[in-house]
Amino acid sequence: MIAEPDGPEDRLRRFATIWSRAVYPVTSTSSTRPQFEDQLLPLARRLSRALAARSFDAEEGRAVGAGLVAAHCTDPEALSRTLDCVDAYLVLYCGGDGDQEDLRARCARLQHAMAAGFAGALRQRTLAEQESIAQAALQAQGVVAQALHATEARFRAVFEGAAIGIGMADLEGNILQVNGAMLRMFGLTEQALRSRNVREWTHPDDAPQTWRLYDELVSGEREHYHVEKAFYRPDGTVLWTNLTVSLLRDPDGNPQYQLALMEDTTERRLLNLRLRYEATHDALTGLPNRTFFFERLEKALGAGEGQRFGLCYLDLDGFKTVNDSLGHSAGDRLLVEVADRLQACATAPGEMVARLGGDEFVALTTGPDTQRKVDELAARIMNALLAPISVDGRELTVRGSIGIVEGPAGERSPAEVLRSADITMYRAKSAGGNRFELADPEADARAITRHGLTTALPTALERGEFFIEYQPLVHLGDGSVRGAEALVRWLHPQHGVLGPDRFIPLAEHTGLIVPLGRWVLEESVRQAREWRELHGGAEALGPLRINVNLSPCQLTHPGLVQDTVDILERAGVEPHALCLEVTESALIGADDDLLKPLRRLAEMGVDIALDDFGTGYSNLANLRRLPVSILKLDRSFTQSMQQFPADPVDLKIVEGIVSLAHSLDLAVTVEGVETGAQAEQLRTLGCDTAQGWYYARPGPPERLHELALVDATG
C-alpha cells in the first residue's frame, strides 16, 4: 500500500506528478518528464491557491491555461487531459478540509477559466502564425521577379506546414488552392473541396453581418474581416472555426484574390458548452442552478412593455427531519424525485424550474398573462407533491410551502423579487405549511422592517438608543401615588420612538432580552434611588415602588437572582422598593426549578406581580404555590366599566377575583383605567391600586416627581 503524502507541499507535488504523467505523452517538448513536471509545479501551486482563496479569481485559472501553451502543451488533447486531471484530483490533493460542495463548484469554475486562458493563448499564437502567413503572402506579390521563386518556396513551406487551414479563392468565390490542414478539417479530398464555391458555405448559425462583410471584401471596400463561422461537413456534423479572410491585391492595387485562414474551434466550443452547462446546472438534480435562474429572471424582468412574470418559491416542509433520520443520501434521492416532478410541472413555453440550493426550488413563468398562469403553476406543484415518494423502501410524504410573486416586468430587480418570494414563502410556512401564499407589499415591508430592527438591536443598546418612561401606580383608596411601572422605549434613528411591542419579541428571539432587561432593571432602580434622594427620602413621599417587567427568557437565565441583588446593593435600594412583573402565560405549568429564582427574590423582600392575570387560562388553585404578592388584572375585564351601566357579568368576575386574591393575601392592581367612573367602580369592588391614562400616560421620570410631590403636599 502506498502511503498518502504527509503535508500540503507533498500533496501538491503528487498532484503535479499525476498531471505531468497524463499530459507529457501529448506534449511537444524536448524536456524529460521530470523536467516537464518541474514546469507544471508552479501552475499546480497557482491552482491550489485559487482553490483555497477567500474570493474566486478567474484570472488565476486563465493564467494557468496560458501557462500550458507556454509549456508547449498546444495539442487539444493536452487540454482535455489537464481538465480531466484537475476535475479528478485537484480537490482531493489541494482541497484541505473545506466545504467539499463549494470546492467542487470552485474547481469547475477554475476548469472553465483554464479552458478560456488556454484558448486565448492558443489564439494569440495562431494569430501570430496568421500574421506570418499574411506577411509571406504579401511579400510573395511584392518581390521582384528574380526573387519570386525563393519567396514562393517560403510561402509554400508556411502554407503546407501550418496547423491552421488555409485556402485561396478568386473574387467570384471559386476555390483555387487549399492546404492539408483545411482538407482534414472538412474531411474532403482536394478535388472535392476545390469544386465548391465560397458562397455555398452558408449555415443557419451565421452571424447577420457575415455575408455583408464578405461582399465588402470582394468588392475592395474592406481589406480583411474576422468572424466565428460554422460549416457543414459531408457527414452532417458541424465544423466551428475562427475565420479570418483577407483581400490580396495585384501590383497595381486592384483586388485579385481572397485568402481564408481557419482555426478549428469545434472541440473547444464543445468543451466550453460542457463547462457552461456544469456551471449553470445543479450537479445533483440536473436542474438549472441559482446562476442560470438569475440570468433568466433578469431577462424576464427586462422584457418589454406589456410583459409580466410569475415566480413560485418552494421550500420543502420538514426536509431536515429526513436528513437527520434517514441520512443525506436518502435526502438527496428525495430531492432528485422532487426535481423530476417539478420539471414535469413547468413544460409550457416561458416556464422553467431551478434549484437554488438545499431543499429550495423556484418555478418561473413569463408572458402577458401570468396572473392566471402562476396560480395554476403553484397548484400543479402542490398536486405533484401529493403522492408519497419511495426512498429505501419507505414511503415518504412530501409537503411544501410556496411564496408567489407576480407582476409586470421592469419594476423590480431580481434580488427584490426573490426577497419578496422568500418572505412570502416563510409566511406560508408560518401559517402551517403545505400551502401557497401571494406576496403582499405591506407584509413584505413589515418583514423587512422587522429584519432591520433585528439586525440593529445589538448596537442600539451600545449606542444608548433605549430610554424608559414611567406610568404611575395609584392607590384607589386615597388616590396617592405608590410607585410606577417602567416601560422601555427605543428611539430608532429612522423609525422614531418604538413601543415594546415592536422590539421586545425580536429581543427575545435573538437573546438580547437578557442584557436589555438587565439594563432596564439597573436604570429603573437607579431612578427609584434618585426619587428618594430628590424628595428627602421615603418619609416625605411614602414608599415609592418601581415595577419592572421580566420576560420568560430572563426567568430562565441563571444570573437573574445575583444580577438583581447586585443592582439593588449598588444603588442602595431596599428590595421591598422593587416589584418584578411576570406574565401569567410564562408561569402556566411552571415547575419548581423555574419558580425557584422567584421564590428566592420574594424571600428577600422583592414583590412578584402576576401580570395580565385572566388571559392565560391558568388554574386558580395554582396561585397558592406561586411566589406572587400582587395580581395585575388584565384590562379586558374592566373595559366595560368605562360605560354606564357596566356589564354585570364583568362586575361579578372582577368581584370574584378580588375576593379570591384578598383571601390569599394578594393585592390587586388594575391596568387600563381611563375614566373616573371606571376608577370609582374598581375602588368599590375592592381593588387596591390602578394605572392608566385617567391618572397619567407613561412619561419621563420628572412627571412622577410632580405627581408624587403634589400628592404628598396635599
Compact description:
Residues 307-441 form the GGDEF domain. Residues 151-221 form the PAS domain. This protein has 714 residues and is of the alpha/beta class.
Rg (CA only): 41 Å
**Class by alpha and beta content:** alpha/beta
Number of strands: 21
Q: List the quaternary state of the chains.
A: single chain
**Content of β-strand:** 15-25%
- Report the sheet with the most strands, covering strand number, pairing sense and barrel closure: 8 strands, mixed, barrel
Return residue spans where pLDDT drops below 50 for at least 5 consecutive residues.
1-5, 143-147
Query: What is the number of helices?
Result: 26
In helices, the fraction of residues equals: 40-55%
Adjacency order of strands in the biggest sheet: 13-14-16-17-18-19-20-21
3D shape: elongated
Measured distance between first and last alpha carbons = 99 Å
Which whole number gives the mean pLDDT?
A: 84
Structural commentary:
Residues 225-277 form the PAC domain. Helix content is 51%, strand content 20%. The longest helix has 43 residues, at 100-142. Strand 1 and strand 2 (175-178) form a beta hairpin. It contains 26 helices and 21 strands. By secondary structure, the protein is of the alpha/beta class.
Considering the chains and any ligands shown, give keywords for the structure.
714 residues, eight-stranded mixed β-barrel, five-stranded antiparallel beta sheet, alpha/beta, 20% strand, 21 strands, 26 helices, disordered N terminus
Helices and strands in order, then pairings?
Layout: H1 8-23, H2 33-52, H3 58-70, H4 76-94, H5 100-142, H6 148-161, E1 165-170, E2 175-178, H7 180-186, H8 190-194, H9 210-218, E3 224-232, E4 238-249, E5 255-264, H10 266-280, H11 290-301, E6 308-317, H12 319-326, H13 328-345, E7 351-357, E8 360-367, H14 370-384, E9 389-391, E10 394-396, E11 399-408, H15 414-430, E12 435-438, H16 441-462, E13 466-475, E14 481-492, E15 496-498, H17 500-510, H18 513-534, H19 538-541, E16 545-550, H20 552-555, H21 560-571, E17 578-583, H22 584-587, H23 592-604, E18 607-613, E19 630-633, H24 648-663, E20 667-670, H25 676-684, E21 689-690, H26 701-713
Parallel strand pairs: 11-12, 14-16, 16-17, 17-18, 18-19, 19-20, 20-21
Antiparallel strand pairs: 1-2, 1-5, 3-4, 4-5, 6-8, 6-11, 7-8, 9-10, 13-14, 13-21, 14-15
Helix pairs in contact: 1-2, 1-4, 2-3, 2-5, 3-5, 4-5, 5-6, 5-10, 12-13, 16-17, 18-21
